[in-house]
Amino acid sequence: MPTVTMVGGGQLARMTHQAAVALGQRLRVLAERPDDPAAQVSPDVVLGSHTDLDALRRAATGSHALTFDHEHVPTEHLEALVAEGVAVLPPPQALRFAQDKLAMRTELSARGLPVPAFTVVESEAAAVGFGEEHGWPIVLKAIRGGYDGRGVWMPEDADAAAKITAEQLGAGVQLLAEVRVPLKRELSAMVARSPYGQAATWPVVETVQRRGQCAVVIAPAPDLDEDLAAEAEELALRLAADLGVVGAMAVELFETTDGTLLINELAMRPHNSGHWGMDGARTGQFEQHLRAVLDYPLGDTRPLAPVTVMANILGAPEAPAMSMDERLHHLFARMPDAKVHLYGKGERPDRKIGHVNVLGDDVAVVRERAERAAHWMSYAVWTDGWDPHE
Ligand SMILES: Nc1ncnc2c1ncn2[C@@H]1O[C@H](COP(=O)(O)OP(=O)(O)O)[C@@H](O)[C@H]1O
Ligand SMILES: [Mg+2]
Q1: pLDDT confidence of residue 41
Q2: What pLDDT, in 10s, does the model give residues 138-155?
Q3: Percent of the chain whose predicted confidence (pLDDT) is above 70
Q4: What is the pLDDT of residues 179-201, one digit of tens each?
Q5: Could you tell me which residue ranges the ATP-grasp domain spans (predicted)?
Q6: Is 82 annotated as ligand-binding?
């Protein structure tokens, strides 16, 4: 049975390992630290940095495919690996558009696809000029390396834009500016594609962001217009084929207040907006990602319930005195149907340390239960005032 190498030892690699176990495969991880979430569970760990070509080579040796739990590997390293015969999947010429937000915006607008108005920012004057032209606030973004809202700023006026631009350019961060889109909500269209060219989408989901970070996902997106849903799935399928993506890809979308779709960003790997499918779909994204990079036929993506809600367990500002283990006991006592996934990470404010999936029929009921469960796991407080010791 094949070995797949995943670069990065985070929770995405950990959950991909979990899927590899079921398929009788081996997931080798390139992890920075032995206690990274995936390094804790894989028997096949290469310790090293994703910026070190030799470490990447060691991790790739003897493996059938090299894939990713984040997009931070330098493109030139990936090209070197390809030249040495490593099956880098997704290939670097596709992955580029998930690594570099300017390249992605430029490519997609050249293809006539809907993206927010944007420009590259190489001076304070460029940021201020963009705001004067398009109206404040604007959005400034790090072109590379951002995640979970780190690398996104929304200056309200020219002074704030100039300050952020000076600071970031001064620190060597490349920037783009784009209009702040009037959002009805955010959506994600996920797809997986194999080298053979087979592709399968999951239903389009709604993603709820808090402080720039995904907090809740509702699958499928409630009350989404059928035509918009079809448009989003077709967009994901077309992008996956046209860019030559292999593996899972999330297309993060904005649904605007006037009912149109704009593409926000692409992630070419398992993605937080696909975690619901671990329990809520016949085939989840981690198994599908492995099937895709190994060029197996893809699995059935159908949902198993009318509604699945995924709520992230985020580190509280101060870790509760009650242990995680005890919190889990109480949660299971109260909600036997809640499916919990913990990542083996220490609790730090706003850090993604796990998630909860709840399935059901009624969006409002399922969402309240999933969020109540996740909040309990984060804070050891029940949002409805219930006390386990009363
Ligand atoms: N142009 C925009 N207009 C409105 N909100 C935005 C815009 N760009 C980003 N955001 C908000 O910030 C979040 C994070 O931005 P994103 O570009 O997806 O960065 P990250 O790589 O950190 O996920 C988005 O999910 C959205 O909530
Ligand atoms: Mg994003």
Answers
A1: 97
A2: 999 999 988 888 999 999
A3: 100
A4: 999 999 999 999 999 999 999 99
A5: 105-294
A6: no
Q: How confident is the model at residue 58 (pLDDT cuts 50, 70, 90)?
A: very high
Ligand 1 mutation pick, 264, 271, 350, 352, max ligand atoms within 8 A of CB: 264
Q: Which residue has the tokens 């569970």?
A: 41
Distance CA 327, CA 282 (A): 29
Domain 3-88 sits in CATH at 3.40.50.20
Render pLDDT for 303-322 as a digit per residue (tens, 0 to 9): 999 999 999 999 999 999 99
pLDDT band of 387, cuts 50, 70, 90 = confident
Q: Quick one: how far is CA 355 from the chain centroid? A: 13
Distance in Å from the first CA to the final CA of the chain: 53
Domain map of the chain by residue range?
A: 3-88, 117-179, 183-379
Q: Of all atoms in ligand 1, which is nearest to the CA of residue 178?
A: 1
Give how far Cα 342 sits from Cα of 140, 149, 218, 313, 345, Å: 33, 22, 19, 8, 8
| CB count in 10 Å sphere of residue 356 | 27
Q: Beta partners for 214?
A: 209
Rg of the chain over CA atoms, in angstroms? Answer: 21
Q: Kindly report the backbone phi and psi dihedral angles of residue 386, in degrees, each rounded to the nearest multiple of 5, phi listed first.
A: -65, 140
Give ion ligand 2 contacts, CB < 5 A: 252, 265
For domain 117-179, the CATH superfamily is ATP-grasp fold, A domain (3.30.1490.20)
Given the DSSP bridges, would you call strands 213-219 and 307-314 parallel, antiparallel or unpaired?
antiparallel
Q: What single letter denotes the amino acid at residue 97?
A: F
* Any atom of ligand 1 within 6 Å of the Cβ of 139: yes
**CATH code for the domain defined by 183-379:** 3.30.470.20
Which 3-state string (H, E, C) describes 77-98? HHHHHHHCCCCECCCHHHHHHH
Tokens encoding 236: 């994901």
CA distances from 280 to 22, 208, 284, 294, 303 (A): 17, 18, 8, 23, 6
- Which residues lie closer than 8 Å to 337 by C-beta, 6 or more apart? 358, 359
